[in-house]
Every structure is written in C-alpha cells, then in structure tokens.
Inverse folding.
C-alpha cells in the first residue's frame, strides 16, 4: 500500500501526541502548518499566525461544529454557537466574571477556600498537590462562582471529568456515554435545587445572572451552559495551578525572583499557560472553501486549533520550549481569541496567581517535590501534570 510519506500528518498517532506533542508540533509548524491528520479526523492548525487569523474570521471558521459530541453531552451551549445567538448567552453571564467583580467579590472567597484547604493539609507535611490541592480547590471555587449549594468538590470533579470524557468519546464507548449521562443528570439536579431560591433571592453567582439577565436564559440554556462552565472552568485552573507550581519548584532561581517581587506571580501565570496550554486544541469548521497557511480547505472541513503549538511558535516566542517567567512580550493565546475568548480568564488568574500560589509558597515552608515519585504529564487536547507529590516542613 502506498503510504503518504510526503505528508507528515498521515503518520501522526494520537498516543504520541498524548505523551509529548511538542516535537511533532515543531515539525508540523515547519513543514505543514495546516495538516490533514487522519488519526484526529481533522486538519491541525499549528502556527500562531493562522490561529490568530482564523479567530478574526468567525464567519468562515465557525464554532458550530457538525456532529459535535459536546452538544450530545452538554446540550447546545454558547461555545458551539455563532453570531447573535452566541452573543446573547455570553452577555447573560459576563458581568459575574469581569475583572472588578473578580477582584472585589470572588478573590476574598478564593482566599478563604485556599486557606481552609491548606490548613487541612498542613500538619501532614506531604500531599499530592495535584489531586489533593489543585483539583479540590478549583472545584470549590467553581461551585461558589456557579451558585451551587451542597455540591461536594468530589462530585463536581467527577461531573467535569465524565463530561469531558464524553465530549472526546469518538470511540463511541457505551460506558463513557453512561458515565457522562449520569454526570449530566447530577448537574441538572444540582441546578434544579438552587433555581427556586435564586429566582427569589438573586446573588452574584452565574446561575443567578443567567436567570435575571435583561434577556434571561431559559432553563434548558442554563443547563447547557452550566455544564460547559463545569467542563471548562475546573480542569484548566487546576492544571495551570499544578503545572506552574511544578515549573517554579524545578526552577528555584525563578521561584526566588517571584517570591522577591510579588508582581511576578502574574507573569508566572501567563508563562505557565503559554508553556503548557491547558486547552491544547479546540475545534472549528469551515463554512466555505478557503485557503489557510498554504492548504486549500474544502467547505465543511473540521479543524483542530492547536493552541499548545501556537504558544510555542518560534516565530513569536524566542526559545519557546523554555519556561521563563521573565519572558518579554508574552503574546500567548492560551485563552483563545475572537468571539469565544475565554470568559473565565480573570477568574483563573485571580484564583491561581493571586491566591493559590502565593498562599501555597508562603505557608508551606521548605516546599519541594518528592524525588522518589516522578511527576508525569499527559494530554494534547487538554494537557497538564497527572500528579504532583510534594512535601514541606509542618
Ligand atoms: C487557565 C484557565 C483557563 C484556560 C486556559 C481557558 C481557556 C479557554 C479557551 C482556549 C477558550 C476558547 C475555547 C473555544 O473557542 O473553543 C475558553 C472559553 C471559555 N472559557 Fe475558559 N479557560 C480557563 C478557565 C476558565 C474558567 C475558570 C472559566 C469559568 C469559570 C472559563 C469559562 C469559559 C467559557 C464560558 C468559555 C466560552 C466562552 C464563549 O463561548 O464565548 N474558563 N477558555
């Protein structure tokens, strides 16, 4: 059989992307910046300039992907809509996540949650900071932002993971569908439990905002978007928290610089999400035939917008594989671009760089990675550390 050796994309295996996508991305950027990758069943767009370009043209590069598994799992959320339908749902949630609201309202809540969690771990002198700190903290913070009551961090993490696995269930595994359907029912029940109260007594939460917006969302719309907030607002802060803590612990000179100048926490955050983009790839679909990065795409072509690669594009970032908090002009696109630019970017920055890291490194003296158990990383659609065994002096 003739193997298409001229086309790099045809040789790419998902398992290799999962293990370490960066060498593959480097080659794609150099040789085939818009490449058909049969294993992913889409064209991968790997250079910064094409990603920025396509986000400026949402009429040609649509977020409303055909046969979207996300829609199957979560319902039709704002993330899979274009134009006015998208703008209406986004507007209903926006006020809750603005920088000033984040600073005045949410940051003190994130600080309380962080202090509580660290107090519970402190005496032990060791923990897996990924599983026992980053995950539960991101979940507890998100529960508050959503307006949930009596939902445990463990439930929220299970729902998030089960629904994310569902949105990636291209193998059509019935067990994965069952778990994601159970999760979706759990979310619907949690929404039903708070809606009567929030209708009577509006508060600062997302569910309240969507109920009381000038153009309020229906319960069906709220259900879909809350699922999307759980899928997109938990794992990413968790992963940036854990990856950044790990990177700083591995670079003591950079950690010392940040501890000496707290204004650098923010730069450490931007560098962390550039270096390992928590959302490594998201989908788009062409609405017409169009040329992109030298490749002619037919109408209806499915694209993978590879932020994990664009953020390491050597044309934009000198020495891109290096973690460097002092990097100048960090023009990363870890939060996307265009109409779907991440709504939760200020929430993420506040909880990770203003609260979690300064509290973690401030309270846990002598914090270090336990050398016996290597830190593992995985993923390309979503990427982060999978464990972070650490110890400190109680
Ligand atoms: C480091 C943390 C985070 C990263 C790297 C991140 C990244 C992204 C990216 C790349 C997108 C665009 C996806 C696309 O266009 O298909 C996005 C959209 C979105 N994000 Fe985030 N996100 C983070 C945290 C959060 C948090 C904490 C929340 C909410 C509490 C959130 C809520 C959303 C929402 C609602 C959208 C969809 C916006 C729309 O469709 O208009 N994100 N995020």
């Amino acid at each position: 059989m003739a193997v298409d050796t001229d086309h790099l994309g045809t040789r790419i295996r998902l398992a290799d992307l999962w293990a370490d996508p960066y060498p593959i991305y480097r080659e794609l950027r150099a040789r085939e910046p818009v490449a058909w990758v049969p294993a992913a069943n889409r064209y991968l767009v790997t250079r910064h300039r094409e990603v920025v370009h396509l986000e400026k043209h949402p009429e040609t590069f649509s977020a409303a992907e055909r046969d979207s598994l996300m829609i199957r799992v979560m319902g039709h959320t704002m993330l899979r809509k274009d134009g006015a339908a998208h703008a209406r749902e986004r507007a209903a949630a926006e006020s809750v996540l603005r920088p000033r609201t984040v600073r005045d309202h949410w940051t003190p809540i994130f600080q309380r949650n962080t202090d509580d969690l660290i107090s519970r771990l402190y005496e032990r002198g060791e923990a897996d900071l990924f599983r026992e700190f980053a995950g539960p903290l991101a979940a507890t913070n998100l529960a508050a932002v959503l307006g949930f009551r009596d939902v445990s961090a463990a439930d929220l993490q299970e729902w998030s993971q089960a629904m994310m696995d569902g949105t990636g269930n291209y193998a059509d595994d019935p067990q994965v569908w069952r778990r994601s359907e159970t999760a979706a029912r759990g979310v619907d029940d949690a929404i039903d439990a708070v809606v009567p109260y929030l209708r009577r007594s509006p508060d600062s939460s997302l569910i309240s905002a969507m109920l009381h917006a000038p153009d309020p969302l229906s319960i069906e719309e709220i259900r879909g978007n809350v699922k999307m907030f759980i899928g997109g607002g938990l794992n990413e802060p968790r992963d940036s928290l854990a990856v950044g803590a790990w990177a700083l612990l591995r670079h003591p000179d950079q950690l010392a610089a940040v501890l000496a100048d707290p204004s650098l926490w923010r730069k450490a955050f931007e560098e962390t999400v550039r270096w390992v983009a928590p959302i490594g790839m998201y989908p788009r679909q062409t609405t017409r035939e169009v040329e992109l990065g030298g490749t002619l795409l037919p109408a209806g072509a499915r694209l993978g917008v590879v932020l994990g690669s664009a953020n390491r594009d050597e044309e934009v970032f000198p020495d891109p594989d290096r973690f460097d908090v002092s990097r100048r002009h960090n023009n990363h696109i870890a939060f996307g671009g265009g109409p779907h630019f991440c709504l939760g970017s200020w929430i993420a920055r506040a909880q990770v760089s203003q609260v979690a890291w300064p509290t973690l490194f401030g309270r846990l003296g002598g914090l270090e990675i336990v050398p016996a158990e290597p830190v593992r990383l995985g993923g390309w659609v979503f990427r982060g550390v999978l464990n972070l065994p650490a110890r400190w002096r109680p």
About this structure: The first helix runs from residue 14 to 19. The mean pLDDT is 95. Residues 63, 78-79, 90, 142, 145, 229, 232-233, 236-237, 240, 273, 278-279, 282, 307, 334-336, 340, 342-344, 347-348 surround protoporphyrin IX containing FE (CB under 6 Å). Residues 8-391 form a domain with the Cytochrome p450 fold (CATH 1.10.630.10).
